[in-house]
Prior knowledge:
This protein is mainly alpha-helical. It contains five helices and no strands. Helix 3 (66-73) packs across helix 4 (75-88). The termini are far apart.
Amino acid sequence: FFDAKVLDLTNEDLIKNFQLAAKNVAAISLRVGYPTVASIPHSISNAYRKLMHLSMATSYTFKGTEEIKALLEDPEALAKAMAAAAASAPAAGGAAAAAEGAGCPWPT
């Protein structure tokens, strides 16, 4: 049914297929809300991001949002931080230029 070359798999092929399977397990686990070893890092990251959004929308502040909220409350400090970031960033286009054009002080 199949040629013998189908059995000629390299370690890179096996690793690539295993990574794809782990990625699919994580995606399905996240979607159905079933925690697995593959989905836990993503769940923690999503929870932190939700806390950041909540902190930005309310007066509640924690260590991760103190600096961002301070910059957003002081336009002069924000302008200085953006100028310093632009001066120290390497001359790379793409996402950095898009983020700078959108007025975003952190990379997206």
